[in-house]
Amino acid sequence: MPKMNLTHFEAAFLFALFTSIVLGVVTKRTDRDRLQYGIYVFVCFFVALFGIGWLMYWGHG
Amino acid sequence: MANEKEAKPAPPVNKWAPVVALSWLIPGGGHFLLKRTGRGVLLLVAVTGMFVCGLMMRGAMFQPQTGDLLTTVINTGGFIGDVASGLLYLLSVWLGYAQPDMPGAVHDYGTKFLVTAGLLNILAMTDAFEIAAGRKD
Lengths: 61, 137
Prior knowledge:
The structure holds two protein chains of two kinds.
Chain A (H helix, E strand, L loop, with lengths): L7 H20 L3 H30 L1
Chain B lengths: L1 H6 L5 H13 L3 H5 L3 H20 L12 H15 L3 H8 L10 H28 L5
Helix pairs in contact in B: 2-7, 4-7, 5-7
């Protein structure tokens, strides 16, 4: 089994991608809604990722 | 509200049990059985991708442990999350890919990826159940 060394950003990107796909598929009832919700969740992950990242940066002073 | 609940009888077990069982064993398998191929493929790719990434990051598999509350919740909850991946978990344990817990950010991410793959599969199982029970198209 090859070893995967990812940065925090790459790991967070993959986590957001896979989770958004599943949440989009299981949550809504039409394909259009599923696509929109999947993209929305993915964007939310990234807003949280950058938002919390900057908060930690400022918190460290 | 009570009348609404009474109006929906519980679906027969033989209608949804095979779907949920297949859904647990193979991520997206229940959707394949219900002829929802596109959604099944997406679930299979996402859950398997998450699990394989976790293995390649050398994430650890949880073993159920009891002790103080936090230890019990983390280890037993993590074990349930791992087992929920179905065949992926069984194969990785049988083939010796289960890693011991190691320090390091990447390994820690891997452990979370493995548990999250199982939790996402539980969502897929719930979706397959709702479709099989006729509560969703």
